[in-house]
Design goal:
12 strands, about 45% helix, globular, Rossmann fold, about 400 residues, 2 domains
């Protein structure tokens, strides 16, 4: 079966699908990843095909208030939509759609008759169990949470409104709003397998049929991959260090964050590894190492703790490694995942990114590393993650679709 996985966003929005694609390819399917140019090497490295989607979120990531954010998000969606007709023209037997691409991919399904399946990294369906993941962590009560969830979906449909109009025109389809298409898919119980762990989010009982929590989709790591020699040397040279990294977040904040991180690590008496990321973290010293991208699956199990932005992928990777975390969420769904980590006892209380200080970080690091309750909770969650097989659940769903 020819399978097209479509996603867009930052590295954390793309990398998990490389591992999922590799599992499907190993099962005998021809798998192609459709995403932006920056991640073509990730697709090729996992042995997957690649198709280009034109939108680059970095080009639309400006600052501003709510209206400005809506405008930049809508511009991103329109640019993304313009590439979908071309992607569809190259053909596929099945579309696997992320939460970002589903509002566009549904229309490809209608136009081509190609079946589709959701493979989301975050819970997006309204529920009384918690508020929408992008609006903060304060519960509004069960009825309020559900209402807020429906409102969040309406805002998402507004973002995709013009993109949907243009895409349907390009596909030769009659007019249909983004809201109407979402309602149609919900009434059909369109299936979505969510790529996160029940250790963090149990399946809400009030979700409709077709929505399932499958387990984490892990980024692809080749059998022969290993850590760079300089990292191995540093790890062997002393006690387990702490990793500090903010992934694709905090661009332009590198100098501030690096200074805070180094001083806090030294105040807590800990060695550290700074992962440069979009922020450009960097520092020198016998007790500090600066690195670029390395597989978290290889590095994190050898650490004392991780200071991170609480993106979904890094959150899961730290849990799988059984390593306590100090979350410093920046935006979007990160406060949600940070709160979930703290709730299960595998992380300290989240630290505010804008007000991050040497004293706060040093104190949190001291607690995370030296209080065994955090590492025990992380180990418990790691055991649960080990019993899940998110990619395997998707493979079974694909096989069932193929049989039908």
């Amino acid at each position: 079966m020819r399978i097209l996985i479509a996603t867009a966003g930052s590295r954390g929005d793309v990398a998990p699908y490389t591992g999922l694609g590799a599992v499907l390819a190993e099962a005998g399917h021809e798998v192609t990843l459709a995403t932006t140019d920056a991640f073509a090497p990730l697709a090729h490295g996992a042995g997957l095909g690649f198709r280009r989607l034109p939108a680059d979120p970095r080009a639309h990531g400006g600052a501003g208030g709510g209206r400005e954010l809506m405008r930049t998000a809508a511009a991103f969606a329109r640019e993304l939509g313009r590439g979908f007709a071309e992607v569809a023209a190259e053909g596929a037997d099945l579309l696997l759609l992320s939460a970002t691409t589903a509002p566009l991919g549904w229309h490809l399904t209608e136009a081509t008759g190609t079946p589709s399946l959701g493979v989301y990294l975050q819970p997006t369906a309204p529920t009384g169990d918690f508020p929408p993941v992008v609006t903060g962590v304060r519960s509004l009560g069960r009825a309020g949470n559900r209402a807020a969830g429906r409102f969040a979906l309406r805002m998402a449909d507004r973002v995709f409104g013009q993109a949907v109009t243009e895409l349907r025109r390009d596909l030769g389809l009659p007019p249909l709003t983004a809201v109407a298409m979402r309602r149609r898919r919900e009434q059909e119980n369109w299936p979505v397998l969510h790529g996160f762990s029940t250790a963090l989010v149990a399946r809400p009982a009030d979700w409709r049929p077709g929505l399932e929590v499958a387990g984490t989709f892990w980024p692809y790591v080749g059998a022969g991959e290993h850590l760079p020699a300089v990292v191995e040397d540093f790890l062997r040279a002393g006690p387990r260090p702490v990793l500090v990294g903010f992934g694709s977040m905090a661009s332009g904040e590198g100098e501030r964050l690096s200074e805070i991180a180094v001083q806090a690590l030294r105040r807590a008496g800990l060695r550290g590894i700074l992962q440069s990321g979009a922020a450009g973290l960097a520092a020198d010293g016998d007790d500090i190492l600066t690195i670029g991208e390395v597989p978290h699956a290889l590095l994190l199990p050898r650490l004392a703790a991780v200071v991170h932005h609480a993106g979904a992928g890094t959150t899961a990777a730290a849990l799988r490694a059984g390593v306590p975390a100090v979350p410093v969420p920046v935006t979007a769904d990160q406060p949600f995942w940070a709160a979930r980590l703290a709730a299960i006892g595998a992380a300290t209380e989240p630290l505010p990114f804008a007000a991050l200080s040497v004293g706060r970080l040093a104190e949190a690091l001291d607690r995370a590393v030296r209080r065994q309750t955090y590492s025990r909770a992380a180990a418990t969650a790691a055991a649960r993650l080990a019993g899940e097989d998110g990619a395997g659940r998707v493979r079974k769903a694909v096989e069932q679709l193929a049989q039908r």
